[in-house]
Fold this sequence. Notes:
Blueprint: H1 2-12, E1 29-36, E2 39-51, E3 54-67, E4 70-84, E5 87-97, E6 100-109, E7 114-119, E8 123-126, E9 130-132, E10 145-147, E11 154-169, E12 172-183, E13 195-201, E14 206-213, E15 217-225
Parallel strand pairs: 9-10
Antiparallel strand pairs: 1-2, 1-15, 2-3, 3-4, 4-5, 5-6, 6-7, 7-8, 10-11, 11-12, 12-13, 13-14, 14-15
Amino acid sequence: MKKYLFIIIVLFISTKAFSHSSHYKGIKKIELDVLRNGEIIGHSNYYFESENNVMTVKNYTKFKVELFGVAVFSISGEAIEKYKDDKLISFNSNTFQNDKEKYVKLKYDDSLKKFIINGSSYKGEASLDCIIGNWWNHKILKSNKQISPLSGSIKEQVVSFIGKEKIIINNKEYLTEHFKIKSKNKNLDEDKKFDFDVWYNPKNNLILKVSYSKMGDWEYRLNNFE
C-alpha cells in the first residue's frame, strides 16, 4: 500500500519553461485541502512573491494517512520555484516520505536551453516542455511531460478535455473545464499508472479540484486564495 500511495503522491504534488506565470500576478496564496475518502488529512499550500520580474512560488505540503489509528503513509515537504520573465529558472524541494528524504535541485541552463536535474531518482537533462508536477499552474493541462517535485523523475502524460461542468466549491458554484490527465505509457505496471480528473476555472486560471481513485478516493480541493 505504501508503494502505491507514494507513486500517486509523486504525481499529485508530482511548469513549462514559458509558464505564463504572469497569469498569477496579484495572487498571494493558493491553499488546497488534501482529502482521502471524504476526510481532510492535510494541505498543500502555495505562496507567491514577485520582485524585479522574478516570481517565487513556495509550497508547503503535509498530510498523513492512518488506518485503525496507525500512520501508514506520510508526506512532509517544502519547495521553491522561481520564474524570470515567465521562464522557469530553478526548482528546489526537500520532502520526507515516511521519514525517508527525497529531493530535487533543478536549474535552467541557458547555454544548453535545457533543465539540469539533480534528483533523488533522476540526474540528467530535461527539455523545456516539461512541467513541474503541481496543481497551482494550469499549464500542466497543456504539457505532455511532468517532472516529479519529489524526486525529479520525468513522466509522460496525455491530457484530454472532457467538457464544461458546473461544480460547487466552498458553497459557490463555478462553471469549469473538466480534463483528464493519464499516463501515456500503457505498458506500465498498474501501480505506476495515473489517472486524474481536473476541474479548471478559466476565469481566474485556478485549478479548483483534482481527484483520483486508488487505495481510496483522493481529492485536492481549493480551500482559499488571495
